[in-house]
Design goal:
The protein contains 4 helices and no strands. By secondary structure, the protein is mostly helical. α1 packs antiparallel against α3. It is elongated and about 35 Å long. The mean pLDDT is about 85.
């Protein structure tokens, strides 16, 4: 079973890998839709590690 930390590292690695290999992201300064989605997944994983108490800060 994967820990929340594993999910966070996996989401970050997927986003960074996409940034390195995506032709559209390399040409444009604006991230493509896939990069935005991967970044959203990473941010959600990061928020879940913080817990509900720090979300209100």
């Amino acid at each position: 079973m994967h820990s929340p930390e594993d999910a966070l590292h996996q989401a970050r690695a997927a986003y960074e890998d996409h940034q390195r290999t995506c032709r559209q992201c390399a040409v444009d300064t604006v991230p493509c839709a896939v990069a935005k989605h991967l970044l959203r997944l990473y941010n959600n994983a990061r928020r879940s590690l913080r817990g509900p108490s720090s979300a209100m800060r």
